[in-house]
Amino acid sequence: MPLFNVYPLYDVTPVSGNGVYVYDEKGVEFLDLYGGHAVISIGHAHPKYVKAVTDQVTKLGFYSNAIQNPLQKELADKIEKLSGCKDYELFLCNSGAEANENALKLASFKTGKSRIVAFRNGFHGRTSAAVAATDNPSIIAPINAQQQVTILELNDISGVKAELEKGDVCAVIVEFIQGVGGLDQGTSDFFEQVYALCKANDTMFIADEVQSGYGRSGKFFAFQHYNVTPDIISIAKGMGNGFPIGGILIHPDIEAKFGMLGTTFGGNHLACAAGLSVLNVIEEQKLMDNVNEMSEYFIKLAKTIPQIKNIKGRGLMLGLEFDFEVGDLRKKLIYEHHIFTGGASNKKLLRILPPLTIRKEHINMFFEALIETLAEVEA
């Protein structure tokens, strides 16, 4: 049976990984500066991660949410401790799309409204309301398009004000650093005014931290660079270091009711074990400090390369923008220098999303390869 052909694939077959490296079936080593869409947070096959998952699966891999699972409470407490998001409540699911889907559903339950405000070049997932709030018509099927969504430009505060004052918006959903869209960010003033407008108009303010969360921005959450308090925070990618897990943090002003949200696999024993090991490593290895140090070093080197026209993002969620499309550049980095990088809807942007354990020697390797490749491209 053939696979449903929806992914354009590079001719690389990773079979193992270690730290910031992956290895193909021939034993070729690749430097991973993309982490599988920012999923690999603490490095491939981290020994504490491997041990936690292995130990748990030998005991109990899964049971439903109809029983007590103390690992869920332990995970919730650890997230609260490291994030500083006091008094929020945790609902666990399986992915970023599911996290945003539940966030939007909860906002609609809370407000009794149904329209969503989202932003140009935003990406929130591929399911129902999450994909409808995503600024990419090519992935929105007619069944998704029935959702009521208004897409505005980032920093258009007058547009946000006008839409919220109509009284039918249940949620404003925002990436504080856009991922697939190309690392664009709103201004501090914009985010803080949007937050105030949400409060004034009975609208939930949703922080999509699926890609930017878990220390990637240099703080635990990217919204913490601003003076805002989201009603709901969605999380996923780096949360499980490759194990499927997602969730939402819910402000205590939103009251839970039996049956309001639900999931079969969300918050299962294996997922919680994986999630706890990630948080423990982030804490023990002081990875958020490393993010800030490595980000500063990366940006310093990037500024020395004249072909780089713009450096976007924060922490280890970075983009290098050129005045040409980077598809061929990425291929050369993969096939000739064995380095994974990422693309974006902005075809001139190279995305850098390495494990948070990256060191200066790995950054040096990348820039040496980039300089050589740029010289070849220009020639």
From TrEMBL:
Record has Transferase as a keyword: yes
Keywords: Aminotransferase, Pyridoxal phosphate, Transferase
SUPFAM superfamilies for this protein: PLP-dependent transferases (SSF53383)
Keyword Transferase: yes
Pfam families (alphabetical): Aminotran_3
GO molecular function: identical protein binding; pyridoxal phosphate binding; transaminase activity
Cofactor(s) needed: pyridoxal 5'-phosphate
Family: Belongs to the class-III pyridoxal-phosphate-dependent aminotransferase family.
Name of the molecule in the record: Acetylornithine aminotransferase
Species this protein is from: Algibacter luteus
